[in-house]
């Protein structure tokens, strides 16, 4: 099953282009999340990892940060039951100790209530920094002998507070909003990810856009450092 990760970017610019406050873009962005989660299973996606809030996003104005946190709470209150009904497991990666206790409780409740779901795993990255996770994992793994890619990935899952085990390698990384960078997202897991950048801003992103990205991904030839089978003679 394909692991698709999305850097959901461009909410602020989308709102600004309409003369609205950035928060308006975040609100509409939450709608895009709902649509993409609904569409993913039928497109062959098994795991969908969504970058919702980076550890560096704490540096934004307090008002925007609270709006984002409030939206996350609203999303969980409204969508957890629906996800449970539709077979969608919700899991979080990132630090939890800096979330407000009420939000952390909603996060845990969503994970618990959807723990048995198997149709799609949605991982939401909140207060997430790939470099911080790697540093924490490396310090915990210091005495591990032998240290392998697999055992390090398990350390990374612990360090990312993932209750659904190691984050698998990303097959397709999508970034909306036109920027072409990783912004500290899944640096280890994206080693061989196919990268797909689209100028479309996240609030405008729909199921058809996900489908187009996956169609393009299926056309790519992944070689993992080798040579294509037909040419290996
Ligand atoms: C993505 O949109 C949402 C978060 C990073 C939380 P932005 O808020 O970064 O929107 P732009 O990039 O400023 O347009
Ligand atoms: C990355 O977007 C984080 C999320 C989408 C949650 P940013 O908007 O924070 O990234 P930069 O600042 O453009 O690199
Ligand atoms: Mg941005």
Give a structural overview.
This protein is α/β, with parallel strands linked by helices and 233 residues long. It has one domain: Undecaprenyl pyrophosphate synthetase, CATH 3.40.1180. It has helices at residues 11-17, 22-39, 62-86, 101-113, 130-140, 149-159, 207-219, and strands spanning 2-7, 45-54, 88-93, 120-128, 172-175, 194-197. A six-stranded parallel beta sheet has the order 3-4-2-1-5-6, with helices on both faces. Helix 4 links the parallel strand 3 and strand 4 (120-128). The two termini are 30 Å apart. Residues 7-9, 51-54, 57, 179, 181, 183 line the site of one 3-methylbut-3-enyl trihydrogen diphosphate. One 3-methylbut-3-enyl trihydrogen diphosphate binds at residues 7-9, 51-54, 57, 179, 181, 183.
Keywords:
single chain, 233 residues, alpha/beta, Undecaprenyl pyrophosphate synthetase, six-stranded parallel sheet, 7 helices, globular, binds 3-methylbut-3-enyl trihydrogen diphosphate, binds magnesium ion
């Amino acid at each position: 099953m394909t692991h698709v990760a999305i850097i959901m970017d461009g909410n602020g610019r989308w709102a600004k282009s309409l003369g609205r406050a950035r928060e308006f873009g975040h609100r509409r962005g939450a709608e895009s999340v709902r649509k993409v989660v609904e569409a993913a299973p039928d497109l062959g996606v098994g795991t969908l990892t969504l970058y919702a809030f980076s550890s560096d996003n704490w540096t934004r104005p307090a008002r925007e940060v609270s709006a984002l946190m409030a939206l996350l709470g609203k999303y969980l209150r409204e969508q957890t039951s629906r996800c449970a009904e539709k077979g969608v497991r919700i899991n979080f990666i990132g630090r939890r100790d800096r979330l407000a206790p009420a939000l952390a409780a909603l996060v845990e409740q969503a994970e618990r209530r959807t723990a048995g779901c198997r149709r799609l795993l949605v991982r939401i990255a909140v207060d997430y920094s790939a470099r911080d996770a790697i540093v924490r994992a490396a310090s915990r793994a210091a005495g591990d002998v032998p240290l392998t890619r697999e055992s390090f990935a398990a350390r990374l899952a612990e360090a990312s507070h993932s209750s659904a085990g190691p984050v698998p390698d990303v097959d397709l990384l999508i970034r909306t909003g036109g920027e072409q960078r990783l912004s500290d997202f899944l640096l280890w897991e994206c080693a061989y990810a196919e990268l797909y950048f689209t100028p479309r801003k996240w609030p405008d992103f729909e199921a058809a856009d996900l489908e187009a990205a996956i169609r393009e991904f299926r056309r790519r030839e992944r070689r993992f450092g080798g040579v294509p089978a037909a040419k290996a003679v």
